[in-house]
Design brief:
81 residues, globular, Arylsulfatase, C-terminal domain
């Protein structure tokens, strides 16, 4: 299983990443408030066949939480498990 994430924005105290199984199969976006990681918004693309929480969603949000804790926001990241 692979999860690909790409930084969309990091501004006004929020970070947004686009994520999917790979660059060609994006599922949606995840926005997290940097100062309050409990404030998370999931947006699934209408074109994506996946419209619910899946392993890629779990991997992506875990990575974003790690990026926040390390204060390091890569433009792209690939996670394989």
């Amino acid at each position: 299983m692979m999860t690909y994430i790409k930084l969309i924005s990091n501004e006004n105290g929020f970070v947004t990443y686009e994520y999917g199984r790979d660059k060609d199969n994006m599922i949606g976006t995840i926005t997290v408030e940097i100062a309050n990681a409990d404030n998370v918004e999931f947006d699934y693309y209408k074109s994506s066949p996946i419209k619910k929480f899946c392993s890629s969603t779990g991997n992506a949000v875990t990575l974003i939480f790690r990026f926040i804790s390390e204060n390091n926001f890569p433009n792209e990241y690939v996670y394989a498990c």
